[in-house]
Amino acid sequence: MSLADTLPSPRPSLRSAVLLAVALLAVSLSFLSRENPLVVFPRAWEVDLATPLGETMTFLARDFRIGPVQFSTVTRAIGWLISQPFELLAGVMAEGFSHYRIDAPTIYVPPLPWLGITSVFCLTAWWFGSVPLALWTGGCFFAFAVFGLWESAMLTLASVLIAVIVGSIGGIGLGILGYRSRRFNAALQPVYDILQTLPLFSYLVPMILFFGFGPVAALMATIVFALPPMARVTTEALRSLPRSVSEFGTIAGCSPFQLTWLVRIPAARQKLLLGVNQVIMLSLAVVIVASLIGAGGLGGDVLSALKSMRIGDAVAAGLAITLIAITIDRLSYAVAMQRREHGRADLPWHRRRAFGLSCTALVVASIAISPLAPAVHTWPEALTVSLGRYGNGVVQWIGTHFDAQISWLRDTALIVFLKPTKTFFLSVPWAGFVLVVATLGWILGGWRLALLGATVFLAIAVLGYWKKAMISLYLVALSVGSAMFIGTMLGVWAGLSNRAARVLIAVVDVLQTLPTFVYLIPVVMLFSIGDVPAFLAIVLYAIAPAIRYTCAGVRGVPQALIEGARMSGCDNRQLVTHVKIPLALPTILLGLNQVIMMAFGMLVITALVGSRGLEEVTLVAVARVAPGDGLLAGLAIAGMAIVCDRYVKALNRVIAYHLGLSVPR
Amino acid sequence: MEAQEKPSILECMDIWKVFGNNAQSLLSELGPNPDDNAFARHKLIAGVRGVSLKVRKGEIFVIMGLSGSGKSTLVRCMTGLHALTAGHMLIDGLDLAQLSDADLVHLRRRKISMVFQDFALLPHLTVLGNVAFPLRVQGIGRQAREDTALRMIELVGLKGRESYYPDELSGGQQQRVGIARSLTTQPDVWFLDEPFSALDPLIRRDMQTEFLRLQSMLTKTIVFITHDFDEAVRLADRMAVMKDGRIVQIGRPEDLILSPADEYIENFTRNIPKNKVLRVRSIMDARTAPNNDVALPAEACLCDVAERVITGKGHHPVVDAEGTVVGALHRSDLAQYLV
User: Fold this and answer.
1) For residue B1, what pLDDT is reported?
2) What is the mean pLDDT of residues B5-18?
3) B216 and B302: one domain?
4) B262 and B301 housed in the same domain
5) Which residues, at least 6 apart from A543, have a Cβ–Cβ distance to it below 8 Å?
6) CATH of the domain at B262
7) Does the model's ipTM exceed the 0.90 cut?
8) What percent of chain A lies above the pLDDT cut of 70?
9) Chain B residues with CB within 8 Å of chain A CB
């Protein structure tokens, strides 16, 4: 099949005719007055779906019964099931266990000593990774203790652990089903797409309804969020196994069960573990945001500090989140990439079990020493350093000394970039917008794409979210534009210079490890709340793939082509402009797709710093426990994100086709 | 010639494998011998077209074909990895299509095994674990299966590497593991799908020698797939050449070289050093009486007797294993095969 078959674009002559007509129509629409129903979507045409949807969900959560079984009993049972291992782990790592008795003193079993936990993590880092990783891990955990963030950090870690375990098991199960049945997999894809683009806050409301306010609801939200990527990774990992591995299993006479669990899953274990690494990072990001519905831990610390404008404390907790994120990322990566070596089976049993034995020994020793040296168990209060107090001081100092500069920066950004873009998006007639979206879709990918784009935006208008959606879209468009502009330039630089690449890729690595929530802290610290900090947070978060993909694209140009261009007489500048950048374009566009997705991911969080689009609706819905609005606004954001994704992918196909390249994946 | 007397253990009866939607019903509509256009019209891809062959007990049967010729598809039909679109595949008299899932599993566990081009070793198991794996899925106890596996590992010359992981071994060593693993269940029929294609030429040669050594000890029935005509000629008792899903010619390597069925086969045979393949028996003159006393064994390779024939005069007597004279050979008979 040639590439031309895969491009469903219309004929060029027809295409230009339609383009002209649409342009004329769109322009003429913008001359209409604002009273015209084609410019501002009339109230009378809007449909209130939020109220009935909310009522349905409340009914589900409160009164719905399947036969004699009340639905809420089922959800409560699930919640109880999840809460058991969580409470156990949280007790062991952070809070200890209290047993209250009416006529006797409360029995309190303390959690594991901090030194015990720290040494186990250090040992793990050394065993699977390296000495530097062990030192880094030890340093981080030591910092948690010294800065008085121990309990919160451990609580966060415990939540992540439980969410990852449950999420991975469920994800692998779904992934296997998706691998076995192509039809099942195809049916799940759009569900995964929506689940992955649905704003976090939209998850939270139904979770509150079903599981009540608290850590269990937060955990459930995290698990649901982490399931789709794990399922996708699993299906993909199984598919990418060499065909012969499955064939061998069959020829060896495996039953279907043996084929899955003895052959395929173990053979794909490395890719699965890398998937788990992704799930860990996602779970961390979500667990932190889920502090909004009572997850506690470091996210809770940041949130309460932000609420009372103790920015220094927020920064301290944010730093701790950063450290945890980097540590568990590197740690789980080291475990995933661990290479097996021969000779272990010949060792005596205590050497084969050395890792487990030493871990146990360290924990037991730390417990045994605790009564003699309490500092081993709990870091002494007197030696705790409050980073927050210094932080608050620093923030105040910045505030008083650089107020003028910061305000100038903020106001300029607002007046020069943000306000005009916002005004533009808000003044575009809805009918013209939908028309242009549809035409664009038709040109890029045929009528199916056009239908998708038009439907999503039409639905947004009908649901009464048009204005909010435009505010979201303006913020995303501006941030994506800026991130792409800066990111591609940095990426080209990194593509051409090895030294730049080393530094930039290291920075990008860290940027991509940080949970979304962390980005809010510095921007709030400097710019308070509003569209400017929201814009900056999105750019910071979304710039990483722009740099990474551009760099990879520029570096990925085949050596033979570069030599060919040189022999045809290109000088260095021509080599970059005529060969490297054009050939890197499909890869850069792949980056654009990632940038847009990440921008949407960050956008929903920026509601916390006062952005006013659809994301605000989802956040307000959490506070008011308004499931209908939260879900619909969330679906609207998800819809816009999916439309952007499909359009950019279609654009990528078209460009790659015109460059005569194969479409990158 | 003895091979012909042995019963066949594998039999392909007019096997068709066609990929695409509704392949089975479309194939029966298209009639007995549809052409390429008919397949293209229905968006079908024909992998194997009407292949019939018999593999005899204890012989090395090589299926040779270039990539896309359908040889891999054919071997997957023979092992039941692919369901047939049409035709019958008999192993030891059992029709694969008629077998229940449980019987098929039983057949695979006991009667057949396969070696793969890319080795298909399980990365999470040691050499020992890999070789013992087929016994493990049968539910055989650890001690028993590891004893058998260790014997197989020794057989392929990997003793001492039992606890290595596959990624610690070279390609040649990995394929030795693959071979050992396929022998642990003591199968009757041994399928090898391009087992040496992923190896360097020198290693490939060693592995072929090793393979012949193993076969001289085990005498399995072997179906060996390759894209390398030289390899086929070197290993085969009998061979089939495939092209576009069909078999072009079946026979002993000598038959193909002496009487290629068409130009396609001739293209392959042209560069084969014929004196290393042909035996005295196949080029001797059975009607002429010998007139000197330097006897030549009938089963000897031409290259081994060439010097004697060239330096000798007249017609040499050709004798079989019992010493009976079966024909004569003159140096002029030999000349054309020495290039």
Assistant:
1) 43
2) 87
3) no
4) no
5) A483, A486, A487, A490, A511, A595
6) 3.40.50.300
7) no
8) 97
9) 76, 79, 81, 105-106, 108-110, 112-114, 116-120, 122-126, 128, 133-134, 136-138, 161, 163-165, 167-168, 185, 191, 193
